[in-house]
Amino acid sequence: MAEADQQQRSAELFDLVDGSGPQPPRQKPYVGFDRRELNTILNLYGRKVAAGEWRDYAMDFLKDRALFSVYKHASERPIYVIEKNPKLRARQGQYLVTTQEGRVLKRGHDLETVLRVLQLAVVR
C-alpha cells in the first residue's frame, strides 16, 4: 500500500517536472475596448450624465464583440448600445450604435465619428 502511494507521488513529481502534468484551464478569448476607445466612450457618457440624459451603463465582453449599453433608468432596456465587432473591420466598420428597438443609427471604422450621432441625440 505504501509502495503504491510512493509510486503515485513519484509519477506526480515526474508530471510536474516534465510539464505534461495537469495544466490550468485556458481563459477563453474575448473582445474588449482598449483604453483609447473606452476613454472616448466614457467622455461622451460623462457629458450626457451631467446633462441629465443618461443615468447608468453596462459593459459586456463577449467572444465575438464588446458592448457598452447606455440606460436612462437602470430597470429598463438600454436606450443605446455601442458595439465593437472586429469581424466587421474590413467591411462596414467594426463600430456600431443601435437604439433600444435594434435600429442601426451609425456604423463606421472610426469610433469618434460613429459616436457623433449620439452627441446630438436627445432622449425622450
User: What Rg is obtained from the alpha carbons, in whole angstroms?
Assistant: 23 Å
Number of helices, where a helix is a run of at least 4 consecutive DSSP H or I residues:
3
Q: How much of the sequence is in beta strands?
A: 15-25%
Poorly predicted tracts of residues: 14-18
Give the CA-CA distance, first to last residue. 76 Å
Polypeptide structure, described:
It is a single chain. With 124 residues, the protein is of the alpha+beta class. It has a domain of 85 residues. Helix content is 34%, strand content 22%. The protein is built from three helices and five strands. The protein has a five-stranded antiparallel beta sheet. Strand 4 and strand 5 form a beta hairpin. Helix 2 runs parallel beside helix 3. The longest helix is centred in the first third of the chain and has 17 residues. It is elongated.
